[in-house]
Amino acid sequence: MRETVLGILDREQSYDRAVAEIFMGRYEETVGGIHKERCSTLHFVLRGRKRIRLWPESTWSMESERVRHSVDERTGEEEHYLLDAKIGDRDAHAIDLVGMPGDLFYWPEGWWHVGSSAGYSLSLTVAFHPRRMR
Questions:
Q1: pTM here?
Q2: Mean pLDDT, to the nearest integer, of 79-98?
Q3: Burial 88-119 (b: 16+ CB within 10 A, else e)
Q4: The CATH number of the domain where 29 resides is what?
């Protein structure tokens, strides 16, 4: 795991902080649905079976879709949520990652994504946030 994290940081010297979150429970989809942030993400499956569905940023245009913008009060980072899209939409563009304990997922900043867990799962996400232009 150490080599994976250092490899990402070595490639992307523009990161200035990492934020860790724990996801646990049983849910059909991430609260808020399909969304994207401006961070690269490592997702570690610790317990249960976890599915992450990803779409390249170009799959949906924020100019032509209904999008809810949200700003994290702690970090000031923006998140964008698709209001009308569903997990089965645009399957031709989707990448499915399904993991069990010990599996590690990665996706780059800007990718649309949503998580789900049919049974109880526990996972840790580490989001690497790029430096903001000041």
A1: 0.85
A2: 91
A3: eeeeeebeebebeeeeebebebebbbbbbbee
A4: 2.60.120.10
